[in-house]
Amino acid sequence: MADDYYTLLGVKRDASEKDVRQAFRRLARRYHPDVNPNNPDAEARFKQVNEAFEVLSNADSRRKYDRYGDQWQHADQIEAMRRQQTAGAGPGSAGPGGQSFSFDFGDLSDLVGRNGGGAGPGGRPGSIFDSLFGRAAGRRRGQDVEHRTRVTLEEAYRGATRTIELREGEETCSICGGSGQIGTATCHACRGTGSAAPLRRIEVTIPPGVQTGTRIRVAAKGAPGQGGGQPGDLYLVVDVLPHPRFERDGDDLRVDIDVPVTDAALGGEVRVPTLKGRSLALTIPAGTQGGKVFRLAGQGMPRHGAAAAQAARFGDLHARVRLVLPDPLTEEQRSLLAQLRDTQLRDAPRETEPRTTEPRSTGGAR
Ligand SMILES: [Zn+2]
To answer: Hey, what domains does the chain have and what are their CATH numbers?
Structure first.
C-alpha cells in the first residue's frame, strides 16, 4: 500500500484546504524536477505529492479518500452497490406495470453514471430504467457521462491525452459479490470495482489552453442507447493543478524572478522561465525596485475556446522582481554594503533624520 496522502503532505487529517495547499506548495517546490535535475527519488516524491494533493484538494475526492482509502476512486460504485443491497432484492426486481414505489432521483443520477464507472442504462435487461421509462418507449438515447480529470499546468499549456475507462452496464462481479473485496483483500477479478461489466477505454485529447472547469465533449462516447437509440456523450471536465512556480490568471501567467540587488541597482540581465520549456533573457534597467513587474507579451497560456479568436493567441507572462542578496555575504561584500549605508546616511535628505517621540503637528496646511 502506498503512503497515506496525509502523511505524504505532512498534514493532519482535519487539515483545512488552505493547510493542504500550503503543504503541497512547500513540498512541490522542494521536490520539483527543475530544482532536482536527474534525481529520480525527488521525481518520484514529486509525483506522490502531486497525487496526494490532487485527491485531498478536492472536497469530493477527499471525502471518498477519508472513507475508502486507496479504494476511493471506486466510492461511487461501492456506494451504488450498497444502496442496491440495502434496497433488498435490488433494482432488478422492480417490475413494470403500476407497482408503486418511491424512488429518489438523487440516487438515480448516481446510478446513471455521474460516477466515473459510467453505469449506463443500457445492457441490463429488466433494470430499473426499463421499469421507470418502459421498454415500450423503444429507442432511447444513452445517458451523457461526465468524467473529471486533473492536468498539470504544463499539460494545460501543451495539451494532453487521457485514457478514460468506462464500464458498460452494471454486471456484478461474481467472485466478490460486488463488494470489491474478499475479506480484507482487494478482489482481483474486478480489481476492487465490484463490477464485472466490460471496460471501455476511450482516448480523449485535451487541447492546449484548458482551464479548471473546461468541459471537453466527446460525441457518442457516453452510455449506449437503448433499442437502437444513439449513445450519449462523454464529457471530460478538467481540473488544472496549481504550479509551484507559475501562477495563472486567466490566460496570463505570473512568475517571481530573483534579481541580485546589484543588478537591480546597476542594471543587468536575468533569465525568466517560461512554460515553453526554455528561459528568456530579460534586461533589468538600472534602478529597478523589488516588486516591479515586467510584461513578456505572448509568453502566457495559449488561448482556448472563444478566447482563441483574439488576435494574440497567447496570454502574457508577468515577471515580478524579487531582490536577492548574495548569500552568504563575504566579508568584503559586507564591508561594501556598510559603506553604502554610510553614504546613504550622509547623503539622505533632511526628513529622514531620527524621529522625535512626539509626533510633529502637521498644522493646517492643505
Ligand atoms: Zn470482484
So the answer is: 58-93+104-240 (2.60.260.20), 247-346 (2.60.260.20)
Q: What is the mean pLDDT of residues 254-282?
A: 95
pLDDT in tens, 160-209: 999 998 877 667 788 888 888 888 888 887 778 887 777 788 999 999 99
CA–centroid distance, 173 to ligand 1, in Å, is 5
Cell triple for 232? 450519449
Distance 226 CA to ligand 1 centre (A): 27
Quick check: helix, strand or coil at residue 213? coil
Instruction: Measure 79 CA to ligand 1 centroid, in angstroms.
Output: 15
**CA nearest to 90, candidates 131, 144, 143:** 131
Residue 169 has which C-alpha cell?
452496464
**Interval 271-307: pLDDT, tens:** 999 998 899 999 999 999 999 999 999 999 999 877 7
Alpha helix segments (H runs only) across 196-330: 261-266
Q: What pLDDT, in 10s, does the model give residues 101-154?
A: 333 333 333 333 333 333 344 434 444 444 444 444 578 888 898 999 999 999
* Count of H-run helices and E-run strands, the chain: 10, 13
Distance (Å) from CA 172 to ligand 1 centroid: 8
Q: Which pTM was predicted?
A: 0.54
Query: Sign of the CA dihedral 361, 364, 365, 366?
Result: positive
247 CA from centroid of ligand 1 (Å): 43
Compute, in angstroms, the gap from residue 186 CA to the centroid of ligand 1. 8
Measured in Å, residue 196 CA sits from the centre of ligand 1 at 7
Residues β-bridged to residue 199: 167
Q: How far does the centroid of ligand 1 lie from the alpha carbon of residue 180, in Å?
A: 5
User: How far does the centroid of ligand 1 lie from the alpha carbon of residue 68, in Å?
Assistant: 16
Ligand 1 center to 201 CA (angstroms):
20
| Sign, CA torsion 16/22/25/28 | negative
Centroid of ligand 1 to alpha carbon of 189 (angstroms): 5
What is the CA(192)–ligand 1 centre distance, in A? 6
What letter would DSSP give residue 114? I
Average pLDDT, the chain: 80
